[in-house]
Amino acid sequence: MIKSLENVMQRLLQSLELYGQIDRLKLAIFTALTFSQKLSGLPPENIFSVLLKDSLVAKGTVLGFITDCFNEYLVENSFDDLIALLKRAKIEDRLLEFFPMQKRTMECFSEHFSKAGLIPLVEYNEKKVFDVKLKELRNYLADQFSEDVNMDELMESLKQRCKEASLPDAEVVRTVWEALMDAIQWSGKNQQQNVNLALRQVKTWGALLGSFTNTGKLELELIYTIQTYCYEDAKLMKLFPEIIRALYEKDVLAEDTILFWFKKGSNPKGRQIFVKGLEPFVKWLEEAEEED
């Protein structure tokens, strides 16, 4: 019975252009209700895949159909259910392919589904694209850190990439830090070796971090990032003060930013431990300021 239903639906959808707008809407409602019932064994990938027919897509027929289908599906199901359906249908990452070729842009995607009242789908897709950009940036940095690259050239290349991808500076700061730490070949048992490796990495590539922390707010973002990273990795818990000091010496972190974090920092992760560990350095900063 399920196989028969699948065959019928495939034939109907393959002939989508033969129906008028009202009949296509009825078919979209029927398709949505079919998957709302969660009929066991009906594979959504076999249903939605037939819609990726060039002639149907080119005329915009398919785009209107899936939009109606999604909206109807959401009448009785949550947005998470819709995403789960798209994943089972193997079209979660292929939604742009339902747009005519001349409209396959993120701008057209956002405009179309926003007008259709499917703003959560727009936001979900934007986040996926954003995450992909960050992953690509992280992979790029991993390749660069493994080679003997020129610092100035890397800075220029990285800034250009981030500009083209429209990545916020705060996200870039976090990604650069995480990529720096990922590039370290950590020792399983030798804690002192881990300390030396981490500090060497910070001192070697500190200028790269500094090129993206050009405001007090971004410097604070870097401290929060380091704080969270050290808190979540036991081997780095005691290393936090040394990293902060090394970045201060490399002119990546300003004294005012460090003191602000020390007195008013809002990230609670391991804060008491890190504040206590940073006390001697903060005391030195304050005494040096008094002497000046």
TrEMBL record:
Alphabetized PROSITE patterns for the sequence: W2 (PS51363)
Entries under InterPro entries matching the protein: ARM-type_fold, eIF5-mimic_regulator, HEAT_5MP1_2, W2_5MP1/2, W2_domain
All copies of domain W2, residue ranges: 127-292
Cellular component aspect of the GO annotation: cytoplasm; membrane
One of the Pfam families matching this protein, by short name: HEAT_5MP1_2
Organism superkingdom: Eukaryota
Assigned protein family: Belongs to the BZW family.
Protein name from the UniProt record: W2 domain-containing protein
Organism of this sequence: Ceratopteris richardii
Organism lineage string: Eukaryota, Viridiplantae, Streptophyta, Embryophyta, Tracheophyta
